[in-house]
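I would like you to help me understand the sequence and structure tokens below and explain how sequence relates to structure.
___
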Amino acid sequence: MSTITVSVVIPAYNEGERLPPYLGQLVQEGIRNPSPAVEIIVSDDGSKPEHAERHRACVAAAQSMLSRAGSPHRVSYVAAERNGGKGSAIRRGWRNVAPETTWLAFVDADGSVGAVDFFRLAALAASSSDVDVLAGSRILMAGRQVKRNLFRHLQGRVFATFTDLQFQLHYYDTQCGVKFFRASLLRPLLPVLKEERWLLDVELLALMKRHNARALEVPIDWAEVEGSKIVPGMDALRMFWGLTQLKHRLARLPDVALTPEVGGETVQLPEREEAPPSSEVPRQKQAS
């Protein structure tokens, strides 16, 4: 069996309609791109029985396709007894990854991030020795296509601006639904992560910044898919309030909790000079 390089979690809550075709696209693209070896973990977040059954069935079908093709990639399924939120589902998936993986990632189940772009980012992560965080970004620029609801785009820009004022992360798009993290840096932080829902992205990026992680934001193609579970207005208010609570919680978090473990022994990460994340995103550009 090939050594897994990237372990990606797909959080799924009642995604019986959108997940099967997207997983099929990922498998087909994976068969065409055998390297790096990717482990896909569908993390069912307490879905209704009929959706959970579809999730399990499409995972079994995907693994069968990969096995028949002799592909090094693999697909597995984990499930929660009850709904806990996107952040909870991602963390559950990460607790079940291959021990040798070098990158921990997540991607949304709706298929807004195409399979071609996902494997492009996976290859970029696997070949980047000077990057610790690789984040997709929904920005309209030459060579990219971004199809997004205008209201959600404007709401997202306001949220991104407020987030940067609170945390100084310097990302154009903190909430894009595909991110990769170097496993050696992220694994020690897993017990520290607390966000259950939409703010896991910000929590992760803020904690990685505290470790002086080297970040790269990469423009991707994005095609918004119907069926979003975000409630316009209400969820935005919850997220704005949640940002304030998150900032206070991280400010109280002792640095000793961030000390990583390597080979079962606690070690101190070497200090890196503080630097803003490098980015392929020209900040003067406008997203769609």
About this structure: The mean pLDDT is 84. The longest strand covers residues 6-12. The radius of gyration is 18 Å. The longest helix spans residues 49-69.
